[in-house]
Amino acid sequence: MGRTIYFKNKPSILATSSISGPKEGEGSLKNYIETILKDDMFGEKTFEKAESKFLYHAIKKVIKNSNLTEKNIDCIIAGDLLNQIISSTFASRNFSVGFLGVYNACATFTESIILGSTFVDGGYLNNVICGTSSHFSSAERQYRYPLELGSTRSQLAQWTVTGAGTLILSNEDKSVKTECATIGKIVDFGVKDPFDMGAAMAPSASDTLVTHFKDTGRRPKDYDLIVTGDLGAFGSRIFKDLMWEKGYDVENQHVDCGELIYNIKEDEYQGGSGAGCSSVVFCSYLYKKLKDKSIKRLLLMSTGALLSSVSSQQGESIPGITHAVSFISE
Amino acid sequence: MGRTIYFKNKPSILATSSISGPKEGEGSLKNYIETILKDDMFGEKTFEKAESKFLYHAIKKVIKNSNLTEKNIDCIIAGDLLNQIISSTFASRNFSVGFLGVYNACATFTESIILGSTFVDGGYLNNVICGTSSHFSSAERQYRYPLELGSTRSQLAQWTVTGAGTLILSNEDKSVKTECATIGKIVDFGVKDPFDMGAAMAPSASDTLVTHFKDTGRRPKDYDLIVTGDLGAFGSRIFKDLMWEKGYDVENQHVDCGELIYNIKEDEYQGGSGAGCSSVVFCSYLYKKLKDKSIKRLLLMSTGALLSSVSSQQGESIPGITHAVSFISE
Q1: What is the ipTM of this complex?
Q2: Whole-angstrom Cα distance, residue B243 to residue B221?
Q3: Shortest Cα–Cα distance, A200 to chain B (Å)
Q4: Closest in B2, B121, B185 to A99, CB measured
Q5: Mean pLDDT lowest for which of A284-288, B175-179, B256-260?
Q6: Of B124, B309, B319, the CB nearest to A118
């Protein structure tokens, strides 16, 4: 049967919500992100509590935006980068709703949409919230160095997005729908530099997209946009090269959420990353473009680097994973 | 629609596999666990690499036991307790198969079965591997104290199971099937002691079971066994009390995987725990009993405590979650 699945009833997106920190709010998507905070601590005492509050806010807001109430929500499917996905669990404990925690690093957002779409498409659940979050400061101190150290950033380092994005998948008939998906497999090219995630993830993005094209018989031109999660500037180049080698030219369709979210300046180098990167970009800008039909077919491919600080310390390489979801606007 | 879903085509269990360390191999299930190692390092240099190898072995073995080949497997759904679920990701990168990482602490095993059953039942995938692992030594040093410190264990502390359990869900018709499931919600009674996980998880186990009974109209006697994951001796007592308060007497049906796996001796106090606890017990003993029809209806309720060392250090309580899956033997 393989890795590509079809949603014959095409679950609809009932609503989305997005929230970000001030830095993201100054970028190219400033007119699309629903809530832009002036203080990325969100009134909390720790980075982790702040991140969780971002996601809590995005869950609460997406329910409001959908005109549903909490009682109509059957399940929240969420994940994030913090150890034991505490951002998602502590955000979700405030809702009297089923919860399924997921983790595929920065590929978690499309993973959650694949699961949510399957539940809704198969008639198992009616309304499912999918969402992810990340926070620059909680990610830096967990994965890299304490901010207080003032370390110089590597040229290939990305900037973790501070924000959260959520959407509700539903069996109601709305214009933006999920239509099919390709589940990622883990691809490991032996990259070991935790400051070069783009290179670690690009081979998995290429593997998933080639698989998607082969399984569906589609070509790049069948999509208005092919959107990767957070390959960054360098990773995107590797990805397009790898696709070219396999006989697919995606130059005209490809864009990366990590490139979209910031007006790239010298100190950000590669653009945004993080589990919240593709969710904030999709739940603000891309969803809006699908809804107003300026984009009609979009393949969202959130990309994940499957490392932990322990695996890197033990000399392990960084495997990547990419899940693809096809959205249509009817 | 709510939290209980029905699998109308009843996905079958094609095969299971279980592997454990030497301590688990001396317990009550010694004649049921498929592979019992003499060395819980499994020839590896670190606890984390050892844990990952346990899961790798259980995935490889379950494919063999099913008489399928890797090519026939559509997806691996797995999770574990290590930061960024590295045990599952590094185990799964060796297979050219789709991967969906999940995390609900020690409730991850039934979470993976709910997702796998939905994919198979709805006709999206044919053969899905579900599995979890845990390792005493990797869990101790990540969540508690370095082993070298020789700390005294709390009276309410449980013993993390060293092992992994896997099963294959399939659309082939076999005798043991999943029939319905109740997705857990996060329940927080404000317990803050990370050495008293049973008390933190018992309220969520009770919530899920009451919801399951209400949604399905079933009573305790409709099951031969109602099996919690790792409430331990004290947590099990709280769970049964809470059920009694809600009008359900589960004394005759209830058993806890954490109590089953060890011959409880003084130094283990509360019994086993860990994401591998319910998977090892189910994939060895319980599956065997279902297969030979000495058990005909079984409700498996893996129980999870949603904490991290960071959330505890920041003064947070420990929310619990419990997912229930009903198995039948036909």
Answers
A1: 0.97
A2: 14
A3: 14
A4: B185
A5: B256-260
A6: B124
